[in-house]
Amino acid sequence: MILENVAPGRDVHDLCEIVSSLGGDVRWEDATTLEIWSAPISQHAAPYRLARKFRASYYVVGALLARLGKAEVAFPGGCQIGSRPVDYHIRGFQALGAEMSLDHGSIHGQVSGRLRGTRIYIERASVGTTVNLMIGASLAEGTTLLENAAMEPEIVDLANFLNAMGGRVRGAGTNLVRVDGVKKLRGIRHEVIPDRIEAATYIMGAAVSRGSVEVERVIPEHFRTVLLKLEQTGARVEEGTDRVRVSYDARPRAVDVETLPHPGFPTDLHPPMVAVLASAEGVGVIQETVFESRFSYTHELARMGANIKVERDTAIIRGVDRLSGSPVEAQDLRGGIALVLAGLGAESETEVQGIEHVDRGYVGLAPKLQALGARVRRVE
């Protein structure tokens, strides 16, 4: 199996370590190409020290149940931005015929023979649950119908990937996904779609710096809602087939944003959007409907002079003309990148500690910002 266009972030390296610990052979052909030999995989338990590192560790449960008939993975760690209940996954695998349990901080699962296809309703259109069940159902016996499935572009990419391997997945990108199980999947070469969240983050840098940013090798349709919202703030948006340029000639205007599952405004871009609104003209409102505890970073923005009031699932941001540079600390991935963006538009120097959180999703952050003209450097 060869995967191209892989962003070598910390989460990817951690997942590679988990695959290696299970017996797989994972090698980097170059900076963005992974070669994976899965034939040697024989272990069903992911080491605690690895699985606890990040929140997507339980994605291997579906693959292990389908391949080995049993799985053991520690509860996920990563960013503390609210609950991501594993019970959605557990109920899904139980519906597929697996015996599931939670014990001593780990998820345990086993199945006699193959998983069995069925109809499953996914609560809250969970991306992680949709991914996990699609993988497991691909090797199940019979047909699985996933209702209220997530519709993100990454789900479509996964379906294309599975189908190229010999799977039979239909309906990806809608809220009803049909998976007809097959007995075996084969290795292929697959190019992963561009990271829409990373691309949109750099574009938002144009808003906080009141300048112009162009990103290349992207799929604009994947973050259309974000582009439309930036246009409402006064941005000039120019699109090509695989590129987007966003420019500002003046201070952004405040807007209201509600995070929603795709194709709505992504929850992962809520913190960067708050960084934009912090120095926008007027009062903006962000309503967070996906994760209930995603506002801890706003206290750090307040150190920089941001005027933000948080009430339950809503942040009210009264824009100031300019933020002031200050020492701040990143406590999670998306909140951390919001602090970096805020620093780009602030007067004087901003120092962001805890940048290892940002490393999980942004590779080569400092060089990329420097290429855009930012005065930024990483201090180890």
Give a quick rundown of the structure.
This protein is an alpha+beta fold. The protein contains 12 helices and 20 strands.
Tell me the CATH superfamily of the largest domain: Enolpyruvate transferase domain
Number of strands: 20
| Count of separate DSSP helical elements | 12
Indicate the radius of gyration in whole angstroms.
Answer: 21 Å
| Main sheet makeup | 4 strands, mixed
Instruction: For the record, give the distance between the C-alpha atoms at the N and C termini, rounded to a whole number.
Output: 35 Å
Model regions low in confidence, pLDDT < 50 over at least 5 residues? 78-83
| Average residue pLDDT | 93
Q: How does CATH name the architecture of the largest domain?
A: Alpha-beta prism
- Kindly give the count of domains: 2
Describe the global form. elongated
Characterise this structure.
The protein is α+β, with helices and mostly antiparallel strands and 380 residues long. The chain has 12 helices and 20 strands. The strands form 6 sheets. It has a 4-stranded mixed beta sheet, covered by helices on one side. The chain has a 4-stranded mixed beta sheet with strand order 7-8-10-9. Helix 5 runs parallel beside helix 6. Residues 78-83 have low confidence and may be disordered.
